[in-house]
Please model this.
Amino acid sequence: MAGQIVTHAVDALAFAEFVRRAAIGPAALVIEGEPGIGKTTFWLSAIERMRNDGFRIMSARPVAAESVMAYASLADMLVECDASLLEELPEPQRLALHRVLLRGDTDDTATDQRAVGAAVLTVLTALADESPVLLAIDDLQWLDSSSRNVIAFVTRRLPAGANVIGTVRIEDELGVPASWLSLAQPDAMRRVRMNH
Model:
């Protein structure tokens, strides 16, 4: 169910359900919990399992100090993309990603966030046509705002074969953590809370 929080430790059943959903269409799993409870350990194990199952992993592990650096996490997720794939993008998208990745000659013109979002979606669709893809983000709360906006844009439009797994700290005073993350089909997203 969309936004459902399961108040028990993450176990094999929650992950198995995510893998089942990922096989039939876009799916997302967000693991919530207090610092030090084991979210990252679960996240690392999950992405290793998905990699072994043939998923291409596009990952980022943002930290607080980088949360003010535009597109830092998005660049981490794209750094291993084949340069030839990026060169095939329409020019506005290609230039936008070159700016994000700090490649080639770029002038001082502001990066068009819509062009970046469209470019990432184009890349993700091309990759998902070849093999399943997993966008994996540890500590969603530390995403820089530019990366967060692009990832929000992309996840609402995930193509078949693309999926998301992330972790986020519970901050009770801030309400639902990472509430900006949503899929076109709300029932394809599951939130699981880790407890002691």
Observations:
- Residues 5-78+132-193 form a domain with the Rossmann fold fold (CATH 3.40.50.300).
